[in-house]
TrEMBL record:
The encoding gene: hflX
Subcellular location: Cytoplasm
Subunit record text: Monomer. Associates with the 50S ribosomal subunit.
HAMAP family per UniProt: GTPase_HflX (MF_00900)
NCBIfam families: GTP_HflX
Keywords: Coiled coil, Cytoplasm, GTP-binding, Magnesium, Metal-binding, Nucleotide-binding
Source superkingdom: Bacteria
Hflx-type G domain residues: 348-512
Protein name per the record: GTPase HflX
Family the UniProt entry places it in: Belongs to the TRAFAC class OBG-HflX-like GTPase superfamily. HflX GTPase family.
Alphabetized Gene3D superfamilies for the sequence: 6.10.250.2860, GTPase HflX, N-terminal domain, P-loop containing nucleotide triphosphate hydrolases
Coiled coil: 307-334
Species assigned in the record: Vulgatibacter incomptus
Gene Ontology CC: cytoplasm
């Protein structure tokens, strides 16, 4: 940027009373000339930077200011969102000569958490700094930081929590669970941010300022995804995606994604697809304008043929939903036949329910010495699995493992898994398994109870099982098992199994227990197919 060009800009600026800007390439060639008004300048659409892009755009924005302003928030947002090499503002003095200047460029991630550096120059004659070398170094640092963070090829996300009227602690523990969900989904979490607000923002859920901060952060960290810990309405999701040019997910979508990754059986896959399609249908929109610059305002050209295509997409989605519902219905009625068969033979059914990762599958394995998949991830189990379990006195039950519950289990998911969850209706006894060592234990118990109630299972006999006893610190004693009327077990050390079987036995075969159970108590039941 020569002093001559600077003077040119300030002279025209003064004459016209408007801000004048130029976009310069690294060679110093003028690529765009922009004429603004007295207060601001609208950049042409140079295209939003791709999410996760580490290279800079190779363009610097130099423009005049007429009223002694320093670099504005818009300048800095453009710098970050458009990934400009730098922005520079030059004062147009009253006599048309260039005055002081201010320059800002992005910074790679740093301990201070700063996003950019702003430098003041008393006069354009002192703009003798070697920007070429500086910018190249910056670009290398940015790329290096991004490389260092890549482990595996998972997407990289910033998690956003929101607490409305409640404390930070609630939002943070919920966010910790979201991080676990993200981890299970194979997403790498770069940062978690909580905002405390008195109410939701109807348009962006969180505050607009906070959203901008998150976008800038995502640029700096190389994130390509924002995950919200609250469910977004279709219009919020749309507005946020438009504002940020990032992929936007909410908690429900993350859970749906995990289910989609993990579904094994044909039925499980259909159920997940049904839930996803139901969730996405209201979110299908015309003209997803990721390419439009924030400054273009969007909307233009978003209608017309797009609308027709949208209608088509919607119709296709509706057809698909009907198709999936029919298929699931068919599968579930064949399962109902199997269930009837089982009932006829009079073997009682014990179903294991509980919060995800409580140790349900591990417990089933340990009790029946089998090998159902169990792992330290959320939603390891999606498909119901049944095993025989032998009780003392040659009694036998069918014990089934089910999908884990989670607080605010997505509504579409409950609906889709209704067929699977219907199995629970036939249970003579529910074993509600709890991770006794989890600090959120009581919330988990309440969440599971709520879901059971919503499934109409509040009346089924229930046994509370405080599992993972081996993880309790000595001073935690029995982890509150006694006062909660729970049985303390460890699926690892097999502690408490005798106690568990005894209690279950008593509940199943006591007086007034199911007729099925008493029918089964004589003789050996037939083999289950
Ligand atoms: N220390 C300890 N760990 C346990 C115990 N029971 C289960 N775990 C561990 O907890 C994790 C989750 O176990 P799962 O059996 O997969 O849990 P789940 O309830 O079936 O989980 P979902 O199917 O995902 O809902 C695994 O890493 C288990 O090894 C226990 O008694 N003690
Ligand atoms: Mg499981």
């Amino acid at each position: 940027m020569s002093p001559e060009l600077a003077r040119h800009l300030t002279e025209i600026s003064r004459e016209t009373g408007r801000q004048i800007g130029v976009l310069l390439t690294r060679k110093g060639e003028v690529e765009h000339v922009i004429v603004g008004d007295a207060h601001k300048l609208l950049l042409p659409d140079v295209g939003r930077a791709r999410a996760g892009q580490v290279r800079l755009r190779g363009l610097r924005l130099v423009h005049t200011h007429l009223r002694g302003e320093t670099l504005t928030k818009d300048d800095l947002t453009d710098l970050a969102l458009l990934r400009l090499d730098l922005v520079c503002e030059i004062q147009a003095l009253d006599n048309g000569l260039p005055g002081a200047a201010q320059v800002a460029h992005l910074l790679p991630e740093n301990p201070e958490g700063e996003l950019w550096r702003i430098t003041d120059y008393p006069s354009v004659h002192e703009l003798d700094f070697d920007f070429g070398a500086e910018i190249r170094a910056l670009e290398e640092q940015l790329a290096g930081a991004a490389r260092a963070r890549v482990v595996g090829d998972g997407e990289k996300a910033i998690l956003v929590g929101l607490s409305v009227g409640r404390g930070r602690a609630t939002a943070e523990s919920s966010l910790a669970e979201l991080a676990e969900l993200a981890n299970t989904a194979g997403v790498q979490v770069l940062e978690s941010i909580v905002q405390l607000r008195r109410e939701h923002d109807p348009k962006y859920l969180i505050g607009k300022g906070k959203l901008e901060e998150i976008v800038l952060k995502s640029m700096q960290l190389g994130a390509d995804l924002i995950v919200f810990d609250k469910d977004l309405s279709p219009s919020q999701a749309r507005h946020i995606a438009k504002e940020t040019s990032l992929k936007v997910l909410d908690r429900t979508q993350l859970i749906l994604d995990i289910f989609a990754q993990r579904a094994q059986s044909a039925e499980g896959k259909l159920q997940v697809e049904l839930a996803q399609t139901r969730y996405l249908m209201p979110r299908l929109t015309a003209g997803t304008d990721a390419g439009l610059s924030r400054l273009m305002g969007g909307g233009v050209g978003g209608r017309g043929p797009g609308e027709t295509k949208l209608e088509m997409d919607r119709r296709r989605a509706r057809d698909r939903i009907t198709f999936l519902e029919k298929k699931i219905e068919a599968l579930s009625s064949s399962r109902a036949v199997r269930r009837k068969e089982r009932n006829r033979r009079g073997i009682p059914v014990v179903s294991i329910v509980g919060y995800t990762n409580a140790g349900k599958s591990t417990l089933l394995n340990a009790l029946t010495r089998s090998e159902v998949l169990a792992e330290d991830k959320l939603f390891a189990t999606l498909d119901p699995t049944s095993r025989r379990l032998r009780f003392p006195r040659d009694r036998e039950v069918i014990i089934t493992d089910t999908v884990g519950f989670i607080r605010d289990l997505p509504k579409d998911l409950v609906a889709a898994f209704r067929a699977t969850l219907e199995e629970l209706e036939d249970a003579d006894l529910l074993l509600h398994v709890v991770d006794v060592a989890d600090p959120e234990r009581d919330e988990h118990i309440a969440a599971v109870d709520r879901i059971l109630e919503s499934l109409g299972l509040a009346q089924t006999p229930k046994l509370l099982v405080f599992n993972k006893a081996d993880k309790l610190a000595p001073e935690a004693k029995d982890g509150g098992a006694k006062v909660n009327d729970a049985i303390l077990t460890s699926a690892i050390t097999r502690r408490g199994f005798d106690d568990l079987l005894e209690k279950a036995d008593a509940l199943l075969w006591s007086e007034g227990a199911t007729s099925r159970a008493s029918a089964a108590s004589g003789g050996l039941p037939a083999r289950i197919g």
